[in-house]
Amino acid sequence: MHIGSTVGLCTPTVELDDGGGYTASKSQRWLWRNWQDYWGQVAALKAEGAQVVALLNGDVGDRNKHSAYQLVTVNRATLLRMMVDALQPVLDVADHIVIVRGTEAHTGQSAELEEALAKDIGAVPDVQAGTASWWYWEATLEQVRVAAAHHPGTNSMRPWTRGGGANRAAAMTMDSYYGQRWQPDLAIFNHVHHNEDSYDNHPLRAIFNRCFSLQTAYDHRSGRGLQRSVIGGLIVTIEDGSYDVDKPAYALPQRRPWKLT
To answer: How many H-runs (helices) and E-runs (strands) does the chain carry?
Structure first.
């Protein structure tokens, strides 16, 4: 979600520490509407009797150490408040919230922002590590074994290689668990901001999840500025040892090209 970035998820208005304020951009308001729609779909499933485990899989907030030009604030207290406010749709629906640590360049050394957030909202703790957030999460849910980490360890950056990253991640994850008693059926990764899915190409299924943030200056510098932003998340419905994956997605409306008159 990269809450705190000027191209990240944001409530319509933010009160800053000095009494001033920040008003979300048009694109951020679009993000916010779709974020609410996504959690509305989850709320509908809960109304039907589902128990909701919300996985926030890294880079929930953003204090980009490389540049402050696309940040709303660098004030840690204000940023934490922004994160809690933006997560209100999650807090309204989730029975359990799991926070996985993201990239240190965005969330601080040892992902301190996400650790502080996890403590603040009472997220499911990593008891063995003694922390409120997780570097990687492993769980058995209705007999389905799920693993999650922010970084997949591989990626497919170009359109003609898309899909290969998820296949590699599936094979890499299988190798990591080789010979162990507990092995995941499904592995979920974020970080790359686009969707990839290994489906049934391997015994383990790996999915790269979309994000709820837009392109940064880094994306434009990396040559991805022309690629259309598609945001969204996953809704994994698990019951009696089997699961289905839905991928609500929202494509940023195309800009109107400049026309010579």
So the answer is: 7, 13
Say if 260 falls within a structural domain.
no
d(CA 163, CA 195): 8
pLDDT digits (tens, 9 = 90+) for 143-163: 999 999 999 988 887 778 888
Residue 224 belongs to what domain range?
Answer: 13-251
Would residue 64 count as lying in a domain?
yes
- Give 218-234 pLDDT, tens digit per residue: 777 777 777 778 999 99
Query: Which stretches does DSSP call E strand in the chain?
Result: 13-15, 21-23, 53-57, 96-100, 136-141, 144-149, 186-189, 196-197, 205-208, 230-232, 235-239, 242-246, 249-251
Tokens of 154: 């591989």
Domain with residue 20: its CATH number is 3.60.21.10
Note the pTM of the prediction, 2 decimals: 0.92
3-state secondary structure of 92: helix
